[in-house]
Amino acid sequence: MPGSPSGTEETAGGAGDAGAPERSSSAEVVVTAAHCSEEAARVLLDVLERAFPVSAAEGVAVEPGPHGKATVWCTTVNAAETASGPAQTASVERVGSVPLDGTVLVGLQGGPRAVDRVVAALKDAFAVDERGTVAGDQEKEVDLLIRSA
């Protein structure tokens, strides 16, 4: 996927100040898509690029499978900014229902608030079933199964 790298500048704001910008490392979410077609993975990544345009690119890494085809797509999203400005947990811009050609297993890993923003953006575009969550002080992992709404 084309794009420019997201910045690594740190901005002021602590974890306790929900309205303040986050440090970029706590706003980064690693997104993986698996068990889907390349087209479905690209649809997912396009939705994330529209919701979080400043991150449009850490690029997409492809893990080749046994027959040379990709089995996992991976990108990093900077969830500190949404398409409409600084991100808030409940204020991700609605992108509307997006058609997929099947289901996609999505893994998210990053700062808890940033992961919640990415989940919210995905719920605005797809039907989302949470499959599991592991949360800690500094990081949260979520497994989702998404499909067309």
In short:
With 149 residues, the protein is of the alpha+beta class. It has helices at residues 24-27, 38-51, 112-125; strands at 28-34, 61-64, 70-78, 81-82, 85-86, 104-110, 126-135, 140-148. A six-stranded antiparallel β-sheet has the order 2-3-1-6-8-7.
Describe this structure in words.
By secondary structure, the protein is of the alpha+beta class. It is 21% helix and 34% strand. The chain is built from three helices and eight strands. It has helices spanning 24-27, 38-51, 112-125, and strands at 28-34, 61-64, 70-78, 81-82, 85-86, 104-110, 126-135, 140-148. The strands form two sheets. A six-stranded antiparallel sheet has the order 2-3-1-6-8-7. It has a two-stranded antiparallel sheet with strand order 4-5. Strand 7 and strand 8 (140-148) form a beta hairpin. Helix 2 packs across helix 3 (112-125). The radius of gyration is 15 Å and the shape is globular.
